Amino acid sequence: MLRLHDEVIINGMRLRNRVALPPLTTNYGTAQGLVTDETIQFYTERSRDVGLVIVEASAVRADGRIVPGSLGLWEDGQMAGMARLADSIRKLGAAAVVQINHAGARCFPGGGEMQGASPSGFAFRPDVVPFTMSPLQIKEMVADFANAASRAAEAGFDGVEIHGAHLYLISQFLSPLTNRRNDRYGGDPRGRATFALELIRAAREKLGQDYPILFRLNAVEKVADGQTLEDALAVSRFLADEGVDALDVSLVAHSTWRKVDGRRFIVASSALSKEQPAGANVSLAAAVKEATGLPVIAVGKLGEGNTAAESVRDLPIDIVAIGRQMIVDPDTAGKILAGKGSEIVACEECMTCFATIGRGAAMACKVNRDLPKTAHLV
């Protein structure tokens, strides 16, 4: 029987326990994608007790940022700050992984050649015009991901996570909703996974066989014509065959359609609503584990009650990730591991964190007033 205190080994990367901080967009970076003191503060306060820290989505290109203060790994000048961040996490005993991403047509509208990149021209916001990527542009993007992964390793991170969830660029290729291509990058689940598999292959060539590569994917997309669990299980097997070392299992929890100037856009969220119970996603992660045999990370209100401990004890889950609750109370993981869950300062699920970064502001929290108040977007 597994316990939260048990260590985990992922391709040589040792985690002291089975609790992780998932990638949380903070918008604390600079407009140039640089790490700030606020970034360091946020992560060090949350690295004291967890086994794994996955640093927020860091852009592989300047035109692929989620928010104006997204961290970046698109150029060498960003590596010194990233090295400082990785070192600050590792010094506290946690393994440090960084997530790399291109937001595609969900990107912050900052301009650039690949702003609005997508598999089939599907729009996500009124201020970004999507375009269908050519095979040559796809090849260029594969190289951008591989180069960012190489920078992550050189900066001292223990591993890299490729963001293939939440309807950002890779996820847009994986989803039948947003990928309507009729070339080798579309069609069935194998075709839709081709882009992801090519960039994993390119990253592996840069990193070698002994460097951990994680991949985040949606188990389901709760929107008409979105990715189903059956699709996700097929993709997860392709990823395992390509040499991914662990799967971080998320989902599109809910979505709505909006219309601006006669154009329809989908607004999707990965956050479980108040009505959904703690651990609602755990069975999905367990299904991915059973399909692949790879270590899996589960997420979804796992900082509540005994949900984290029960998830690893009762289901084939390797790691539990605690996100919003760790924004509110940075000591959540330590309190859970010490059996002091009653002392946790609870998240009110008010979504202030999502709302503030959605406006392009630094992440804020209604309960935790000690978060940095401004982002240095200079």
SSE arrangement:
Blueprint: E1 8-10, E2 13-15, E3 19-21, H1 37-45, E4 52-59, H2 79-90, E5 95-101, E6 117-118, E7 131-132, H3 135-154, E8 159-164, H4 169-174, H5 189-192, H6 194-207, E9 213-221, H7 229-242, E10 246-252, E11 254-260, E12 263-269, H8 282-292, E13 296-299, H9 307-314, E14 319-321, H10 324-328, H11 332-337, H12 352-358
Parallel strand pairs: 3-4, 3-14, 4-5, 5-8, 6-7, 8-9, 9-10, 10-13, 13-14
Antiparallel strand pairs: 1-2, 11-12
Number of helices: 12
Classification by helices and strands: alpha/beta
Q: What's the shape?
A: globular
Question: Would you count the extended β strands for me?
Answer: 14
Q: Quick check: average pLDDT? A: 93
Q: Termini, distance in Å? A: 50 Å
Query: Beta-strand percentage?
Result: 15-25%
Q: What's the main sheet like?
A: 8 strands, parallel, barrel
Helix percentage range: 25-40%
What does the model show?
- It is a single chain.
- The protein is of the alpha/beta class.
- The chain has twelve helices and 14 strands.
- The chain has helices at 37-45, 79-90, 135-154, 169-174, 189-192, 194-207, 229-242, 282-292, 307-314, 324-328, 332-337, 352-358; strands spanning 8-10, 13-15, 19-21, 52-59, 95-101, 117-118, 131-132, 159-164, 213-221, 246-252, 254-260, 263-269, 296-299, 319-321.
- It has an eight-stranded parallel β-barrel with strand order 3-4-5-8-9-10-13-14, surrounded by six helices.
- Helix 3 (135-154) packs parallel to helix 6 and helix 7 packs across helix 8 (282-292).
- The model has no long low-confidence stretch (mean pLDDT 93).
